[in-house]
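pipeline/complex-builder :: batch 7 item 3
reading input block
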Amino acid sequence: MDIQTIVNQVMEELQKEGQIRNSPIVKESAETKESKVRNINYEKINQVGVEQPANREEIEKVQSITPARIGIGHTGTRMKTKNYLEFRIDHAAAQDAVFKDVSDDLLKELKLPVLFSKSETMDQYLMDLDSGRQLNETSRKWAAENLPKNKQVQIIVSDGLSSTGVEANIKDLLPALVQGLTSKNITIGDPVFIKRSRVWIQDDLASIVNCDCVISLIGERPGLATAKSISAYLIYQPNEDTVEADRTVISNIHEGGVPPVEAGAHLADLIEVILKHKASGVKLAQLK
Amino acid sequence: MFTCTLKNETYQFHSIADVLAKASEEKSGDKMAGIAARSSLERMAAKVVLSEITLKEIYENPVIAYETDEVTRIIYDDLNLFIYKDIANWSVGELRNYILSHGTSTSDLFRISRGLTSEMISAAAKLMSSIDLVMASQKIRPTAHCNTTIGEPGRLAFRCQPNHPIDNPEGILASMKEGLSYGSGDAVIGVNPNNDSVESVSRILHMTHDFIQKWDIPTQNCVLAHVTTQIQALKKGAPIALMFQSLAGTQAANDDFGVSKEIIDEAFQLMATQGTSTGPNQLYFETGQGSEVSLDAHLGIDMQTLEARTYGYARHWKPFMVNNVSGFIGPETIYDGKQVIRADLEDLFMGKMHGLPMGIAPTYTNHMQADQNDQEIAGMLTALAGANFYMGVPGGDDVMLSYQDTSYHDDASLREMLGLRPLREFEIWLVNMGIMENGKLTERAGDLSIFK
């Protein structure tokens, strides 16, 4: 046992004793009981949970390079209480992230026009995929009348399954992407935000604005490690024969994955390649 | 056209596909497709009709035409007609009774398996309850060999799944060591890459291969990129022991996945001549109810039947592992914990009935109504039913794919509660490493820093 572990154990013992001494078990009036608040402040701290590891420093080091739940140790074959609760808390947060909306302030700040899919409620959006894959009639009409046509690239921001992801990344990602494309003399239509939308809605909008390449920046379904991740889906000239494998995907765009600014530059390069080869997805991978 | 009068009400079904769809237990994907039963009694009427339909009727009416669908063609071309003709006059109800009977042995089941189309197997499962599915699944133990032998009685294997959000090699390596230190990794060490490029995939293949060589681990490596990427990596000399691809139950969905018979044939051939493993089983497939409906490629067929057809397609290439991931998509296909548990039990039975070495990933995503408790129930039930393997994910949380799956802890627990051992060769390695003794993890287990 190393010194640190011993010190920790002693400290824990002392704390326990202190609690026992201070606890007014006897003759406590109802009044004081109510006024006593036991405040528990939950904080997630990465700790080595392995008992007597062969190399504690090694575990600490690798814990810092992956968000995966490693080096957590076990009791019997099960997780320790702390890690079990952490997992359940992160799951609860992820569930909540699905049902929040992207804030109007952010959309105003980015000057993104807001279009709508055919999904009228979150429930419809989750259970009826088609409703999130097409623009509603008002939005189609608006797009046809107001968006610039025949540009090389159309950018779409979609809430997808994580409004948190859009809020955390788009402010950095979108300008980086636009700047990257502009510096390559690639023409871009007006970026738009589409509420309650899925990836395939890009085919719908591409047909209206007649672009060569359409890119969707879309909130990924939230994970436990992060609820803030978005993906980019790109496709060259989608049509009725388009299949899923025709799309190129870059996932895990967030601070702990591919950082948004870096992703913007990378996506601009990727679009240049797609335009050059006039293909995306598996077709592009085979051409390269 | 079929009709059934039940409790003074007459129900009509316009085809076998319609009967199959309406006889399914409730699932949100079938509802979204507009093919599910509209009431509980209509579902029962469909089950009654299905129990009377003969295997011959099903054979003569494939749910998707032979001429237009490659999956149907493989299922029919691979069928043993001699065995089929022996049982062609059975009704689906009789087939269910035969499967569950004490008089029917494991080898009897393997034999009729060769004469059953996927639709027949799906039909039988629709007449089975949870315990029916477990009892039947326990009887069927398909085995396969790559570098290790999977599926032997008394043994349970795991895929160590050490994913990292941006494929950081050190991060992958750390999660891999963690998994191995819990005894997970005898099925395969399989990494889902974030970056699907040939260079990046090859890098991970080399890294995992080198680690396996260095520590002399009896297992196989795999990087779960698109099969065409893996083929290119293999042609450029990357070491692959097991090649992966996701499959679906209609040609239209497989087109969406970018796969076909021709491509998988090439993968099969290349692995036989250039793969690093012994074989003969060198492919790893993933499947799951709902992929066709989420790709709008279901052609009006229910999710469970399409899943069965995926197995009929998969068995053509004699895979080492078929992993079922039915909860992976979301609430639009599988709504809640109850539907996941049902799908997992159905899929395990249907896969085994096709003679496939099945594993189950009792997964859930964060936008569906399921949680860890549901997942653990599905894990225990399918382990009881004799699944060959599960995934192993650090702390049950896949930080790249953003979903939950069985943890290294769950893996160790499933083995311990059912008295199951790791795969033979791998158990010897674990004992030599001081990680396991007498089938139980030692004090040394769960410490990734033992790999220096």
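note: Chain A has a mean pLDDT of 88.
queue -> next item
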